[in-house]
Write a structure and sequence with these properties.
By secondary structure, the protein is mainly α. It is built from 7 helices and no strands. Helix 4 runs antiparallel to helix 7.
């Protein structure tokens, strides 16, 4: 469902920015939330954990997509080359080792990794 939400947000210019911070009571938004909470409850989560898990998934997806759309529109605060130049091995050895991944712009891979972390973490809470 996170992938479906991301795809829907990406279909619209500034889709994530428009969606961010809204607490819509429209049918589509409520239907999405209800379906996600329902799937979590069917997997064994109580109502409270299912609600918090839904918020975590939506907030991760929204935050990731906000950053993705900003970068695609050229609005990212730091471009990859600027980051590469700023991160020196002597000052930031651990970050320097990670810059190739951070600056690669593979939003699909970054999203899938974060989603996998969320799903695996949620599995530890299943009752």
């Amino acid at each position: 469902m996170a992938r479906v939400l991301r795809a829907a947000l990406l279909r619209h210019r500034d889709g994530a920015r428009v969606f961010a911070g809204t607490h819509s009571t429209g049918g589509n938004t409520l239907g999405f939330a209800a379906a996600l909470i329902g799937a979590l409850r069917e997997a064994g989560f109580g109502a409270s954990d299912a609600a918090r898990a839904m918020l975590a998934v939506v907030n991760f997806t929204l935050g990731h997509t906000l950053e993705e759309q900003a970068a695609l529109a050229g609005e990212a605060p730091a471009d990859p080359e600027r980051l590469r130049l700023a991160v020196t091995e002597s000052a930031f050895p651990h970050l320097a080792a990670a810059v190739p991944v951070i600056a690669d712009g593979d939003f699909d891979a970054h999203f899938e990794f974060g989603l996998r972390l969320l799903v695996n973490g949620l599995r530890t809470l299943e009752k």
